[in-house]
Write a structure and sequence with these properties.
- The structure is a homodimer.
- By secondary structure, chain A is of the alpha/beta class.
- Chain A is built from 15 helices and 15 strands.
- In chain A, helix 8 links the parallel strand 4 and strand 5.
- In chain A, helix 2 crosses helix 3.
- The interface between A and B is large, with 72 and 71 residues.
- Chain A binds a DNA duplex through helix 2 and helix 4.
Chain lengths: 365, 365
DNA sequence: CTGAAAGCGCTTACAG
DNA sequence: CTGAAAGCGCTTACAG
């Protein structure tokens, strides 16, 4: 217990080291930044004096201002960071990003623009970064505007293109469509859909056609469209398919959604989701209500996170290369920082992975 | 394909906006920072001019230098960030940290000091942060020195105390000991241990007593000591217990370690690990070699990450409150930043969670 | 309500 | 090899 002991004394500055030693500030600066500009002996004396005075080396803020670079890239989410960390897909993405920043000696500054009362554009305007990666923000989000306004290099992930900004993503609609076609092909006709948020300030509950049409998260919108296309194709009216929206992309919410869907008449025999996180919750709901997956209920995830293969039963899902998405986003941003050529748009491949959570409907003959 | 279009034109500065409008720079600054210092009308004109000139608002680097604050806290790992992200325990910790930084409008700057050729202290000296959280760094790591040298508020997690620095952690030794006592109590006498790295530049393979003694990661050292204490207590010589060190804390390495341990004579009937990540790999190795857990092999994890409960069979492990650890570290750092009182040391409670991966040895009578 | 002045801590040509 | 000068872009008392 006690007041922090380190916050006390002023730190010494470069100027003070120079004064103490009787040399010019530039000489001290050179000792740190350009060893070839002074004798080894003098350099050692500089360091020695710095040590004695408690000078911690050039202040990064001052150096950054002078050199016009922050040494970090910002990754912006519009959810709370704790939700982002809870989703393995996002963590894998971050892994990819960090592989490239690490190599470059850049830090990764995690920024949260969680929608809510105190959504402060300061998050963006105050971020000490050299560029931004925007991760699945909603169309028209003011924080995206703010980021664009900073006039720094930007890479946008899982969002529609804005002007000439670089983008990285997958073809969500056709990936979702292929997943739905798989289930349709098995003979299913009674569907339920569990989607993550459709727009900032997402709510929990059935989303009618109007709300679906108003979806501003591009990923949510595209996946629903893909599902709708495959289902409509086979003569089922999309208006009859209940779509349950979950405010957060966590298994718990998927479970609650499924409990609601299963209590409907007719009871869905196949549930399509927009993430494995949600699908894991669907599995849990089935377990709790004594339904066997896939015999009584087919379940389809999206993402193919490692947990999907380990689930009981293993999840049929859409695989997408999360780490690579992060790598590409990172590399693209880096290229921009260096004024190099960049490749864009980058649409990564996906594929349907059929595992044990889907089969033909029970009453199918 | 093309050169980044955003990197072109110079950004306007506050000074230019002021000049364009014919007011003093301080007035423009006030428009952004102290709305009460000028009329609403003038303020609007300032913003309008800023928009017209493409002025993105005060530069965070310059503002930070002037105000003497960076607006971010640094979290330092000595592994590659991608390994950190791979371990749910570390992600949960980060979740906790980010909950408090988020509330404060601070960013989280992830810093990697992965041991290796080009281990650059610049990672520390160049980090634009207001304080550091050091996560399980090795004793005597030069980066720790460097961080201390910055003379910023610091919280150290899962490390021994250094001087008067604030610390957060658990009692690793007694937690490990209780886990080993559980297995010993079941009647086990033939053990194997799978540990994560003992020192920077960790290697894969059996670690003899000498190497164990030289361990500089406090967590690794303490957990081994706890295991040793319980095992020695029951008359088994610790020198006879093979300890396999894994360079990375990933299931894959745990599997490889276990394959090596299982090929030894006598074959271990119980394997103690220093993490669930590693224990998950032990399970996989057992599966591959046709051994049934727990019938043929008892397995103990450490951490109680969510995956532990979901594993087949569910892992017996030591629970520790990862999110709370992050919360406490974050809160302590924040308190220091505000020059408030801090509580230290903070040792969080742990508890042994007995699940399905441990039972009495097969030949026990 | 507005502006002139000083300065946050450093780096970078440039001249010697 | 060393140093004087200018300036990175801003904010903060302070005087009016």
């Amino acid at each position: 217990m006690g007041v922090n002991p380190r916050s006390g004394g002023r730190r010494a500055t470069l100027r003070e080291v120079a004064a103490e030693l009787g040399v010019a500030p530039s000489t001290v600066s050179n000792a740190y930044n350009r060893p070839d500009q002074l004798s080894a002996a003098l350099r050692e004396r500089v360091f020695e004096t710095a040590r004695r005075l408690g000078y911690p080396g050039p202040d990064p803020l001052a150096r950054g201002l002078r050199r016009r670079r922050a040494g970090a890239v910002g990754v912006l989410y519009d959810t709370r960071l704790s939700y982002a960390f809870a989703d393995p897909a996002e963590v894998l993405f971050l892994q990819g990003v960090s592989m490239v920043t690490e190599e470059e000696g850049l830090g990764v500054l995690l920024l949260s623009g969680a929608p809510g009362e105190e959504r402060d554009p300061e998050v963006i305007s105050g971020a000490v970064v050299d560029g931004f990666i925007l991760y699945s923000m909603a169309d028209g989000d003011p924080l995206v505007e703010a980021a664009l306004g900073r006039r720094l290099p930007i890479v946008i992930v899982d969002q529609p293109r804005i002007g000439d900004v670089q983008i990285v993503g997958i073809d969500d609609e056709s990936a979702a469509r292929s997943a739905a076609e798989h289930v349709v092909g098995l003979g299913h006709r009674r569907f339920g859909v569990v989607t993550f948020g459709l727009a900032p300030g997402a709510r929990d509950g059935i989303a009618d056609l109007e709300r679906q049409a108003a979806a501003t998260y591009r990923v949510s919108r595209s996946r629903l469209q893909g599902y709708a296309a495959a289902i409509t194709d086979v003569g089922v009216s999309w208006a009859d398919v209940p779509v349950y929206e979950c405010a957060e992309n966590v298994p718990e919410k998927g479970r609650i959604a499924t409990e609601a869907l299963l209590s409907r008449d007719p009871r869905p025999a196949a549930i399509l989701t927009s993430s494995d996180q949600l699908a894991l919750g669907v599995l849990e709901a089935a377990r709790r209500s004594g339904l066997s997956v896939p015999r009584d209920l087919s379940v389809v995830g999206f993402d193919d996170v490692p947990e999907a293969a380990r689930a009981t039963p293993p999840l049929t899902t859409v695989h997408q290369p999360h780490v690579e998405k992060g790598l590409l986003a990172g590399r693209n941003l880096l290229a921009q920082l260096r004024n190099e050529e960049t490749t864009d748009p980058t649409l990564l491949p996906t594929r349907l992975v059929v595992r044990g959570s889907t089969t033909r409907p029970r009453t199918h003959r």
